[in-house]
Amino acid sequence: DAKTTQPTSMDCAEGRAANLPCNHSTISGNEYVYWYRQIHSQGPQYIIHGLKNNETNEMASLIITEDRKSSTLILPHATLRDTAVYYCIVRSPLEGGSQGNLIFGKGTKLSVKP
Amino acid sequence: DGGITQSPKYLFRKEGQNVTLSCEQNLNHDAMYWYRQDPGQGLRLIYYSQIVNDFQKGDIAEGYSVSREKKESFPLTVTSAQKNPTAFYLCASSIDLGSSTGYTFGSGTRLTVV
Questions:
Q1: Which of A97, A101, A104 minimises the CB distance to B42?
Q2: Chain B contact present for A74, CB below 8 A
Q3: Cα separation of B101 and A77, whole Å?
Q4: What are the beta bridge partners of residue B58?
Q5: What are the backbone dihedrals phi and psi of residue A29, each rounded to the nearest 5 degrees, phi first?
Q6: pLDDT tens-digit profile of A33-61?
Q7: Are the Cβ atoms of B110 and A107 closer than 8 angstroms?
Q8: B35 to chain A: which residues are within 8 Å by CB?
Q9: Fewest beta carbons within 10 Å, which of A5, A49, B89, B94?
Q10: Size of interface A-B (CB pairs under 8 A)
């Protein structure tokens, strides 16, 4: 079972920031937070990941709360091409067996509207 | 450019036939994975391989088989024992199982059994 909770869907106006929340209240100390997105009928695309500190790359920013029980993915200027399902995943690369792999829930369907 | 190639993109088979899905990567990654995705659902792990000549069952391995004879290749066979084989199949790879880096996904194969 996925260890995260995300809203089923969200809308965002084109050009505005999209803020996608994720709850992971049972996260353990060695688990990272990963974000992927999947555009319809394509393979998931890696966006960003972090452990404790906030992270930023050319695609997005990841804000992790101090207690690590929740995080927010920020797309600073959403475009129509950002319409996709966004998955928040927690994973420990140190964990053995299939649980050490990425476990995908249903994600958040983000619709960017003109 | 390095990446993962899945072929074919669309595949149709008659019920009762085995079918093999191809996955090739030139990223020099040790670990490879197969996921299945049903409409409106997240991804479920079928099999994964940490290294050549080694593979492990994921959460839904029944009715599937894999091989890992070469580092670059991780083919998936959907056997006649799989009760509901129609789905979108995704292959992925990562540097290794113990790394915190993300997975790279292929573009998927959509299998339809008639």
A1: A104
A2: no
A3: 25
A4: none
A5: -65, -25
A6: 999 999 988 999 999 999 999 999 999 99
A7: no
A8: 104
A9: A5
A10: 63
Contacts of B97 (CB under 8 A, 6+ apart): A93, A100, A101, B30, B31, B48, B50
Please, are residues B10 and B110 in contact by the beta-carbon 8 Å criterion? Answer: yes
Structure tokens at B74: 């991780």
Question: Encoding tokens for residue A97?
Answer: 């067996």
Residue A15 touches chain B, beta carbons under 8 Å: no
Residue ranges of chain B whose CB lies within 8 Å of a chain A CB: 4, 6, 33, 35, 40-45, 48, 56-59, 88, 90, 92, 97-100, 102-108, 110
For the stretch B45-83, pLDDT in tens is 999 999 999 999 998 999 999 999 999 999 999 998 888
Q: What is the largest CA-CA distance in chain A?
A: 45
Cβ atoms within 10 Å, residue B9: 11
**Per-residue model confidence as pLDDT tens digits over A73-106:** 999 999 999 999 999 999 887 666 666 678 888 8
Token representation of residue B34: 């197969």
Q: What is the 3-state secondary structure (H, E, C) of A14-80?
A: CCCCEEEEEECCCCCCCCEEEEEEECCCCCCEEEEEECCCCEECCCCEEEECCCCCEEEEEECCCCH
Q: CB contact, 8 Å: A52 with chain B? A: no
- DSSP assignment of B18-79 equals -EEEEEEE-S--SEEEEEEE-TT--EEEEEEEEETTEEEE-TT-TTEEE--SBTTB--EEE-
